[in-house]
Design goal:
This protein is of the alpha+beta class. It contains 20 helices and 24 strands. The strands form 5 sheets. Strands 11, 12, 13, 14, 15, 16, 17, 18 and 19 form a 9-stranded mixed β-sheet that branches. The chain has a 5-stranded mixed β-sheet with strand order 20-22-21-23-24, covered by helices on one side. The longest helix is centred in the middle third of the chain and has 31 residues. The N and C termini lie far apart (63 Å). The N terminus is likely disordered.
C-alpha cells in the first residue's frame, strides 16, 4: 500500500479514498515492520547526484541525474504514482543565475497491490534534470549545487517517507562529457512527435495514438501523466486501426483538456505523447500479449529485409556506382585467386556494415538526447558537406587519371600489399557517401529503427550496410559471377574516365548544397578548397609521372563546380515557382484541412537525391501544377535541409526516419502516404 500525500498535493484524491488507503496501511503496518525491519538511521533508498560533466561550459547546459537505488524488495514512484504513492520532489539551492528545469522520469513498471495499480521503479533508476549555466563565468568558477529530495519508498507491505540532502560542486570548464551518463538518458521515453486524440464515451475513454502499422508491439501499456483521466486499475485494450493504435479503458473522474502520458512499447522502451480531444476511429485488430511476440519478431525481420533491399538499391546511385564498379573490376584481375577475392569481399562488407552501424549508433544517441535528427543527419553540418565535397573531388580526379588512389581504384601498392585494408576502407567510403540517399524500402525500415529497441535498431542499420555490400560480396564468393566479368584490358582505363562523370556530378550537388546551407561565403570556401586540392593532387601526379595527358580533364572537373550555382539555382527557382508551395507547419496544415481543401504535403532536403529527382520529374511540371490549380489544392513543402526539429518529429510520427515523404489529405480524411518514387500520372490522379 502507498501513503497518499496531503490534500494540498497535486496527487490528492477524495477524502474517502485517502481514508481507505490509510486504514489499509494501518492494518498492514505492524506485520510489515516485523517482516522488513530497518535499523535505526538506515534508509530503504540511497540517493546520489551525478553530473553529465563536472566541468560545464559557461553559457551552456548540464544534465544531472538523481540516481536512486532502493534496497531489494523496495520500490520508488513515477511522476504519477497511480492509485497510491507520492511523486519525488526536489528543493534546489543553486548559485545565482543557475536555473533547474523539471524532473524527467524514465519509463516505469506497473505494480498491483490489493487491487490498487501503482506506477513504480524496481531497482536502480534515475530522474534527470537540466541546469542552465549563466554566461560570462570564468573558467574554474565553483558552482555549489545543493538539493533536498523528498520521496516515498515502499515494499508490497509498508511505505516509508524519506528525504536526502545532496551536494555536488561543479567547476566551469570545457564541458567534457561522462560517457556513462548516456545510459540514464536512454532510459527516458522518446518523444513521439505527433499528437494523439482522445474521446470520452460514457464511462469509457478511447485514445488514438499515431504509431506506424509496421511497428511491432509486444506488451503496450499507457501510463497517464494527467491525473484522474483514466482508471489506473482498469484493463487497457489495444487494437490497430491502420497507422493508429487505439486504446480503450475505463475513464477517470475528470475529462481533461489535454492528456499527457507515456506509451510503453515493451520492456523499458517508451514514447512520450500528448493527446487532444477529437474523434477516435473504431477499434481494429486487437493486440494480445500472446500474438505480440511472433508479430514483433516478424516485424523486425521485415524491417531488416527492407533495409537490405534499400542498401542494395543504393549501389546504382551516382556516388556509389563508380566505387562498386571499380572494385568489381579489380576482382576481374584476380583470376583464379579465390582466397584474395573472398578476403576482399569480406573486408569490403565489413567496412560498409561497420560504417552504417556507427552512423546508426550516433543517430540513436542524438535522438536519445532529445534531438529530432534523422538519417543523413550529418549532411546538415556544412563541415561534413565540405569534407565530402573534397573527398568526392579527389575520387573524380583519381578516376580522370590525375593521380592514383589505390583504395578506390583497386590497383597500386595498397591493393597489392594490403588489399583487405583497401577493400575495408572502400566499403566504408561507399557507405559514407551513400548516406544522402533514401530510396524505396529504406524509409519504412529506418523509421521503424528509430522507435525499436537499440539492439533491433542496430540490426536494421547493419542490414542496410549488408545490402550495400551484397553485390561485391556475391562477386567474391560466386566464381560463376566473376567469370562473367569482362577481362582486364585497355578498355578499363577508358571506363575509369567515364566513371569520373557521375562523381563530378556528385561534387556539383555537394557544392550546391554547401551554397544552400551557408550562402555565398560557404560557396566560395568550397570552390577555393576544391581548387587548392586539385593543385595539390596535380603536383603529386606530376611527381608520379604521366600527369600531362590527364591534367586538363582533371582541372576541368575541379573547376566545373564553380559554374554550378549559376546554372542550377535559376532553374530551381523557376521550377519551385510552378507549384507555389507554402512552407509547412502543423498549424498551417490544420487550418487548411479545416477549410475543407485538399492538401498535398511533401518533405524534401537539398541533400536528398530521390527528392530532387521526384521534384524535377513528377512534381514541378506544368501538368501537375495545372491539375492542382484546377482543384484548388493547397501545397505545403517541408524543407529538412537544416534539420528542423518540428519536421523531424512530424516525419517520425509517420514512421519515417528521413525524406522524402509525400502526403495527400483529401477533404475530411486522414493522410494518404504516397510512394517514394513518383510519376506525373500518380500525382495528377490525386487531383482528378
Amino acid at each position: 500500500m502507498r501513503v497518499r500525500p496531503p490534500p494540498r498535493s497535486r496527487y490528492s484524491r477524495p477524502v474517502t479514498r485517502f481514508l481507505l488507503l490509510l486504514l489499509t496501511l494501518m492494518a498492514l503496518a505492524a506485520p510489515a515492520f516485523a517482516q522488513a525491519p530497518l535499523r535505526p538511521g538506515e534508509k530503504a533508498m540511497s540517493v546520489r547526484l551525478i553530473a553529465e560533466t563536472d566541468a560545464p561550459a559557461s553559457g551552456g547546459k548540464v544534465e544531472l541525474a538523481l540516481l536512486m537505488t532502493p534496497k531489494p524488495g523496495w520500490h520508488g514512484y513515477w511522476k504519477n504514482p497511480g492509485d497510491a504513492g507520492v511523486e519525488t520532489k526536489v528543493e534546489w539551492r543553486l548559485p545565482p543565475g543557475v536555473a533547474a528545469g523539471p524532473l524527467r522520469f524514465p519509463v516505469p513498471d506497473t505494480l498491483i497491490v490489493a487491487g490498487f495499480m501503482n506506477y513504480v521503479y524496481k531497482g536502480e533508476f534515475a530522474h534527470l534534470v537540466a541546469l542552465e549555466i549563466p554566461a560570462g563565468l570564468a573558467p574554474g568558477t565553483i558552482l555549489p549545487i545543493r538539493a533536498r529530495v523528498a520521496y516515498v519508498v515502499c515494499t508490497d507491505k509498508v511505505c516509508v517517507p524519506e528525504s536526502a540532502d545532496l551536494a555536488l560542486d561543479l567547476r566551469v570548464g570545457t564541458g567534457a562529457r561522462n560517457e556513462e551518463f548516456d545510459r540514464y538518458r536512454e532510459a527516458l521515453p522518446r518523444p513521439l512527435g505527433s499528437d494523439g486524440r482522445f474521446e470520452r464515451v460514457g464511462d469509457r475513454l478511447r485514445i488514438a495514438i499515431p504509431i506506424p502499422a509496421s511497428l511491432p508491439l509486444a506488451t503496450p501499456y499507457f501510463f497517464p501523466a494527467t491525473l484522474d483521466a483514466l482508471d489506473h486499475g482498469a484493463p487497457q485494450n489495444f487494437s490497430r486501426a491502420g497507422d493508429l493504435l487505439v486504446l480503450e479503458t475505463r475513464a477517470g473522474r475528470e475529462t481533461p483538456a489535454a492528456l499527457d502520458g507515456v506509451l510503453r512499447l515493451g520492456g523499458r522502451d517508451g514514447l512520450s505523447l500528448t493527446a487532444g480531444p477529437g474523434p477516435v476511429p473504431p477499434a481494429g485488430a486487437p493486440l494480445t500479449a500472446r500474438a505480440a511476440i511472433p508479430d514483433g519478431i516478424s516485424g523486425v525481420l521485415l524491417a531488416f529485409g527492407a533495409a537490405l533491399l534499400g542498401g542494395l538499391l543504393l549501389n546504382v546511385m551516382p556516388c556509389v556506382f563508380p566505387i562498386l564498379s571499380l572494385k568489381a573490376l579489380s576482382l576481374a584481375g584476380a583470376g583464379g585467386e579465390e582466397g584474395r577475392a573472398r578476403r576482399d569481399a569480406l573486408a569490403y562488407t565489413a567496412g560498409a556494415i561497420l560504417t552504417c552501424l556507427a552512423l546508426g549508433a550516433l543517430l540513436l544517441a542524438l535522438r536519445s538526447g532529445g534531438s529530432a535528427a534523422g538519417w543523413a543527419f550529418q549532411l546538415q553540418d556544412p563541415r561534413i558537406i565540405l569534407f565530402l565535397l573534397l573527398l568526392v573531388v579527389a575520387i573524380a580526379l583519381n578516376l580522370a587519371g590525375l593521380f592514383e588512389l589505390p583504395a578506390v581504384s583497386g590497383g597500386g601498392r595498397l591493393a597489392r600489399a594490403g588489399g583487405a585494408a583497401g577493400s575495408f576502407w572502400t566499403g566504408a567510403l561507399a557507405a559514407f557517401v551513400a548516406t544522402p540517399c533514401t530510396g524505396p524500402f529504406m524509409a519504412a525500415a529506418l523509421g521503424a529503427a528509430l522507435i525499436l529497441p537499440t539492439a533491433a535498431a542496430l540490426a536494421i542499420f547493419a542490414g542496410l550496410g549488408l545490402g550495400l555490400a551484397l553485390p561485391f560480396l556475391l562477386l567474391g564468393f560466386v566464381p560463376f559471377l566473376r567469370r562473367r566479368l569482362p577481362r582486364p584490358g585497355p578498355w578499363m582505363v577508358r571506363f575509369r574516365h567515364i566513371l569520373a562523370i557521375p562523381m563530378a556530378l556528385t561534387a556539383l550537388a555537394l557544392l550546391w548544397l554547401l551554397w544552400r546551407l551557408t550562402g555565398r561565403d560557404g560557396l566560395l570556401l568550397g570552390i577555393g578548397a576544391a581548387i587548392l586540392l586539385t593543385a595539390i593532387l596535380w603536383w603529386t601526379g606530376r611527381r608520379a609521372g604521366g600527369w600531362l595527358r590527364f591534367a586538363p580533364a582533371a582541372l576541368a572537373l575541379a573547376l566545373a563546380p564553380a559554374l554550378a550555382p549559376a546554372a542550377v539555382a535559376p532553374s530551381l527557382a523557376r521550377a519551385r515557382g510552378l507549384l507555389q508551395a507554402k512552407p509547412f507547419s502543423e498549424a498551417r496544415l490544420a487550418r487548411l484541412r479545416s477549410e475543407g481543401r485538399p492538401v498535398f504535403v511533401y518533405f524534401t532536403a537539398d541533400w536528398c537525391l530521390t527528392c530532387k529527382v521526384n521534384e524535377a520529374a513528377a512534381l514541378e511540371t506544368e501538368a501537375v501544377a495545372e491539375a492542382f490549380k484546377r482543384r484548388d489544392v493547397a501545397i505545403l513543402v517541408g524543407d529538412w535541409t537544416r534539420g528542423d526539429a518540428d519536421i523531424g518529429r512530424f516525419l517520425q510520427s509517420h514512421g519515417r526516419a528521413g525524406v522524402p515523404l509525400y502526403l495527400w489529405y483529401a477533404p475530411g480524411k486522414e493522410a494518404e502516404i504516397l510512394p517514394q518514387i513518383l510519376t506525373p500520372g500518380t500525382v495528377t490522379a490525386l487531383a482528378d
